[in-house]
Amino acid sequence: MALKVSPNNRYKKGSRCRIPEKGDSLETRVYVLFFLVFLFAASVFIRLYFLQIASHDYYKKLADNQHSILEDIFPQRGEIFLQDAGMLYPVAVNKDAKMAYAVPREMSDPSGVAKTLAPVLSLPADDLTARLSKPNDMYEVLKHRLSDEEVAKLNDLKLEGVHLASEAFRYYPAENLASQILGFVGWKDNGLGGRYGVENYFDSQLTGHPGQLSQDNSNAGFWVPTGDQNIVPAKNGDGLVLTVDHIIQYETEKILKSAIAKFSAQRGTIIVMEPGTGRILAMASYPDFNPNNYQGEDMGSFRNLAVSDPYECGSIFKTITLASAIDAGRVNPDTTFVDTGVVQEAGYSIKNANYKAYGKQTMTQVLDMSINTGAIFAEQQLGNANFLDYAKRFGFGSPTDIELPGESAGNLANLKNFKTDINFFTASFGQGITVTPMQMAAAYNALASGGRLMKPAIVEKVIHPDGTEEEIAPQEVRKVVTEQTANEVGQMLRSVVVNGEGKMADVPGYLVGGKTGTAQVASTDAKGYQDGQNIGSFAGFAPVNDPRFTVLVRIDNPKGVNWAESSAAPTWGELMKFLLNYKNIQPTEKYTQADLERFNNTHDLSKYAAKNEAEQAAQEQKTQ
To answer: So what's the pLDDT on residue 346?
Structure first.
């Protein structure tokens, strides 16, 4: 029999069972669902509280630790120094800056943070939102090398999950000083690396070796904070102490810039070497650049003219020709020849630069008056094969292997056929072949060093990360000529300054010697030479009887002067006077006050230095 239940009575008398009403199961499910939602919300709240409040310091330390790990993984770049009166002068250092990074898992509103942060850091808001919307991400670099203004704004905003940390970047405290020697650190192969100069040549040594990190990751690829980590620390890069003297480099650059301004020249370069060691005491080229702001500089100014730009050097090569012929025993300083003013060869008439005929002249007078036909005479006595052999022995046609990138070998290709005399004739006075200023400075330095060709050196010492130091010893390449030959040629170069075309290079009280050279500039789009273009050079050393400095000056396309004796020679004399005084080398020759006043009046470049500085300041103001 069916059980009947009264609507007002849910239970039968004496029954222990509840009789469900229609729809009662749905109500139960609603309560259960509500309870589950409440439980989930509570767990989320508790988790957020745990992450953002209770464990905030813990995760902040984890993020900071991630940054610290990066510091352990990436090595510190070695710094670069110049010599400075027995001390070290820093020219490429690591400077601290601030970087911004984020810890996305600390953020409750990544999109809002991104919108606030975008204008402060000048970054796209959409990109920031995507990068910050990674709930498991503990470390996201936002921007390097923040400005003081950006740092101040971030400190004021105190954005959730956004932090600041220190980082190092390359800084050049002397700015333009020795810029072509140093180069700079910039973007290279999708990362930062040395560009140009020493920064490039020694990039791997300066960079050091990165460390390694192995760690436990989750199945999703995320780092497990409580897992194992194995860190192999990075090895910092070596520091370099250059052979360059800070004071000499500064003065050399000042004198070069003044000469460029005085003669409205296109560009120029000066090399100062130390006889006996081959160490570079100064190497200046102009125009130069500021490596702290290389992005805004003309890329042409990055090139180091001293090593990368070969040229037809002109009559300074006559010294090499005469030294070779003397060393081979074919002529001596007093050997004579009769100059008719012209040499006919292969249908060409080769004349002296001033179209003069000097008559009977000695080899010393050939250098004094820079007689082209006299250089040809010496080459003829020597012979083509021997001439080429000596040219190579002096280092021409091959890189000097100076530790700088982009060095050119020059070009002796015109001398490959010994039967073509005309190419050898023009080469005897520095036309038809190309050499670099570095090669020519090294060749003159060989004469100053008793006939020993020294490898040009730009690094004197390496400072390893553990503090130990490694001295770089001078390296002799080979013996080029005998010491007697070198001494005789030194006296001939002294005669050039006293009796010949190098008078403007003389320094009162000292035995200085050198040779002028005015070379035509080869045309780039046709045979022959460019009209109205010339390169003035002067190369020599002092004191001749005990050489302390070898100096080469090159000035491209000076205006208002036709010969190097009026441009490169006085520039060389001004610098040599400074060098001798700077090193307290006492005068050995008599001179009068009138001689000194005449020198100062002729060589005073201070007003041109002021002009150059004013023009540079105006250009910087325009750039800003």
So the answer is: 86
